[in-house]
Design a protein that fits this description.
The chain has 326 residues and is α/β, with parallel strands linked by helices. The chain has two domains: 202 residues, Periplasmic binding protein-like II (D-Maltodextrin-Binding Protein, domain 2); 94 residues, Periplasmic binding protein-like II (D-Maltodextrin-Binding Protein, domain 2). Strands 2-1-3-10-4 form a five-stranded mixed sheet. Helix 6 links the parallel strand 6 and strand 7. Helix 2 crosses helix 10, helix 2 packs across helix 11 and helix 11 packs across helix 12. The longest helix has 20 residues. The protein starts with a helix and ends with a helix.
Amino acid sequence: MKKLLQLFSLAALALLPSTPFAAERITAAYTSIAAAYAPFWVAKDKGIFDKYNFDTRLIYMRGTVPTLAALANGELDFVQSGASPFIPYAARGGDVVLLGCLANKVIDYVLIAQPSITRIEQLRGKNIGISRVGDQTHHYVREILKRYGIGLKDVRLVQTGLQPERVAALRQGLTNASILNRPNNLPLEQEGYKRLLDIEDLKLPAGVRCLITTKKIIKAKPAMVDNFVMAWLESVRYILTQKRETKQVIAKYTLNNDDVHLEEAWNTLATQTEIPPYASVSQLQGQANMMAEDQPDLAKFDAKVMVDNSVIKRLEDSGWTKKLFR
C-alpha cells in the first residue's frame, strides 16, 4: 500500500504545471547618456537580461557621489562606468571591483572649441568647460594641455556640469572649449565649432566602459555575477552584429534620431571594443598615477585591489567567449 501511495503521489506531481525559477531582481546603473553605455540598454530592450533570468531595474545615475553611495549601501548590483570616479573610493578602502572593461585607454572624448579657435595652443587664457574639478574630464583636459605645453594655470577651468550643460555653455559663449563624448560633438561641428583633438590619439591609460560591482556581491552571489557578465558580453555581441537594431536602441535612450549621429555612435562602439574585455591592471595603475598629480593620496594606490578578471578568464578558458564572438 505504501509503495502504491508513493507512485500515486509521483503521478500527481507530474500533472502539475511546471513552475520556472523566479527571475533574480537586480538593479544596474549607467552613469552617462552616451552610446558607450549601450550594452546595458541593449540587454534590457532586446531581452538578453530576460534570457539570463534577470528582472532588471535599469537606472541612470548622474554623478559620482550618488553612484558610490548607492553601491556602498547595496542599492546597486552593477554599474557600467569609466573606472576613474571609483579609484579614489577604492584607495580609501571602498568595496568596488572591475569585472571587465571594454577598453583600456581613454576613448570617445573629443576636445571641441569655438569656431574662431583652430589650434590647441590658442586655448591659453581661455575658459574650458569640464564637469567638475577632480573628475575624469578634469584629468583628461589637464593631460591634453600638458601634451601641448600648457599648464592648468594658463587656462580657466569652468565647472559647467555634464554633457548637455557643457554643450549649452559653449553655445552661450560661457566657455571657449570643452571636452565631450561622441556623438555629442557632431551638432556643434555642424554649426561651425572646431574639433581640436580625438582623445584616443593620445593613448591615455584608463579603464573605460567597465562593468563594476562589489566584492560583497561576488562573495554572496557568484553564480549571479557569472550570469550577469555573460549577459553583458552577449549584449556586446549583439551590438557588434546588429547595427540597425542597436542604432534604434541608442536613439531611444539618447533621444537622438539623427542617423549621422547614430552612425558615429555605433562606429565608436564597433571599433573601440576589446574582446575578451579584461580590465588591465597596468593601464588602471597608469590612470591612478595620472590622477595622483592632484590627489597625492593616490600615489601609493595599488590598482590590483579593484580588479577581478576571474569571470572573464573562466569564460575565455571554457571556449564560451570564442564561441560567442566567432
